[in-house]
Design a protein that fits this description.
The chain is mostly helical. Helix 7 packs antiparallel against helix 8. About 85% of the residues lie in helices and about 0% in strands. The N and C termini lie far apart (about 170 Å). It has eight helices and no strands. It is rod-shaped and about 235 Å long. Among the domains are: about 180 residues, no CATH class; about 60 residues, no CATH class. InterPro entries: ICR (IPR029688). Keywords: Coiled coil. Belongs to the ICR family.
Length: about 375
């Protein structure tokens, strides 16, 4: 029997059941090897016992032949009488036949074909064992042919030992058959688990391919996310810059609004000043109008005074008053006319002064009268 155990690698995805079956298979293989060793030892002991039995039978047959030859009567050739053959050959044949048809050998012969069918080329039990057993049986039959129906005690003892060895070999072979059956079952289980393992490996390979595809897709998505993050960072930077620009624009707008408010306030103040200036201008115009009226009145009074006073002084005073009306205001002209009159009066001497003083008095009296009117 030869049990070829090709141990397959468990693989990363093998389950504990496969490991347990492999452990059982290893254990059964160890037991099978031990049984083979025991069977080989038993076969060797059986062969040694048979060889010793054959040798003893040969010695015993030779001794019996010598004794028979010495005790046999002489052969009478003249009467053509031949001594009758002994029945040792028949008895030996019967003895060998009885030995060959013993229950142990029958069981042994029944075990050998079944084992040869289960295990084709075992290292211990070979196909030539049956042939060697038959040859030994023939040699035993030849040796038994020289014996009588009753063998010597040594031969019987050897025969008993041989039968015991045959029984031991039979038991060992029966146990070996049981172990072979268990090993075959374990092999089938291991093969089924190996098939399941291959299917699981195929599924795992498909899953690995799917994982690789998902990993590639994930890498692509990561690249897209990285690009989006970069764009987002750029947009965030642009948004921050825009926010800063908005803040700066808001600050400038506030400053501009403040400046506009200040400008509006200044404009309001300027408008108020302008209105005040307008009022002042109107007041000045009214005052100028009054001054012109007064100047006209003063002119007329002066003319009247000049007419009263007469002479050169009147002409000079009239000329002075005419010039003042042309180039100056009415009040200033009046003052200048008075100054000029006073100056001319000083230049004219004491007489002129008296005339001027009289004229001024007359003019003031006239002015008072007109003012009262």
């Amino acid at each position: 029997m030869n049990v070829d155990l090709q141990k397959k690698p468990a693989g990363p995805g093998a389950g504990p059941r496969v490991a347990e079956l492999e452990a059982k298979l290893e254990k059964a293989h160890g037991q099978l090897m031990g049984m083979r060793d025991q069977l080989a030892a038993a076969e060797k002991a059986r062969k040694d016992a048979r060889a010793a039995l054959v040798e003893a039978k040969k010695r015993l047959g030779a001794k019996k032949r010598d004794d028979a030859a010495s005790s046999a009567p002489p052969v009478e050739h003249g009467d053509d009488k031949v001594p009758a053959p002994t029945d040792d050959g028949a008895e030996g044949a019967n003895g060998e036949k009885g030995y060959m048809s013993s229950p142990v050998t029958d069981a042994f012969e029944a075990v050998v074909p079944s084992e040869s069918r289960n295990n084709n080329d075992g290292p211990v039990v070979k196909e030539g064992n049956k042939t060697s057993d038959e040859e030994e049986a023939r040699s035993n039959a030849v040796a038994d042919g020289d014996d009588g129906k009753k063998g010597s005690p040594e031969v019987e003892l050897l025969r008993a030992k041989l039968m015991a060895k045959d029984m031991e070999v039979y038991e060992l072979r029966a146990r070996l058959m049981v172990i072979d059956t268990e090993v075959d079952d374990l092999k089938r289980k291991v093969m089924s688990k190996g098939t399941e393992l291959e299917e699981m490996k195929a599924k795992l390979m498909l899953n690995d391919e799917l994982v690789d595809k998902l990993t590639a897709n994930l890498m692509v998505k990561d690249a897209e996310i990285a690009a989006l993050e970069a764009d987002n960072a750029d947009l965030t930077k642009v948004a921050e810059e825009a926010a800063e620009a908005v803040k700066a624009a808001s600050a400038r707008a506030r400053e501009t609004e403040h400046a506009l408010r200040e400008s509006a306030a200044r404009e309001a103040r300027l408008a108020e000043r302008l209105r005040a200036s307008e009022h002042a201008r109107e007041a000045l115009e009214a005052e100028a109008q009054r001054s012109r009226v007064q100047s006209e009145q003063w002119r007329k009074a002066a003319e009247e005074a000049a007419a009263v006073l007469g002479g050169g002084v009147d002409r000079v005073a009239g000329a002075r008053n005419t010039d003042k009306r042309r180039y100056g205001s009415a009040s200033a002209g009046a003052c200048e006319s008075e100054g000029t009159t006073a100056k001319e009066g000083d230049e004219d001497g004491t007489s002129g002064k008296r005339k001027a003083g009289g004229a001024m008095r007359a003019l003031s009296d006239l002015w008072k009268k007109k003012a009262q009117k």
